[in-house]
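Input.
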Amino acid sequence: MTAYRDPDSTDWRANRVAAALAGRNPTVLAELDHAFAVIGDVQFLPGYSLALTKVPGVDRLTDLPRAQRLGFLADVDLIAAAVETVCAARDPAYRRVNVEILGNNDAFLHAHIWPRYGWEPPELVGKPVWLYAAQRWGDPESALGPAHEGLRRALTTEIARLRALGEFAAPW
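Output.
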């Protein structure tokens, strides 16, 4: 299985935010008010998604004015709720969702939304995802691709459903 690739994949991967704004980031599930909901490049924990800022050049949450910060966090909340609903419906071993804003490697504001499962290795239960072996991150079996189309559709549909409810909008 090969990973989803934009015809100009080096370009979209080099600047994921600009590519999302230009409509060329193939991982985008939905454009929200303050973020793009995207599915992760790897799916060894099925449903792994992210929120990408819509503001080019923003490196950390505190780079945004407070109203935009709260709007970004409201979008993270919406994506996390969608991941939880979809993953719980698809896998009875679903346990919870973890949300992380780290920014250690990629210099653009983004939040990781990790579903966690009961079938994970016992030594990683209750531990950060970053402790998974390096080969998991590059494993072709879990690389985002055509096998994940059903998951993509389910996440996109749930994000749209939650947006329509209006519960996740920033209050201003």
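Residues 1-9 have pLDDT under 50 and may be disordered.
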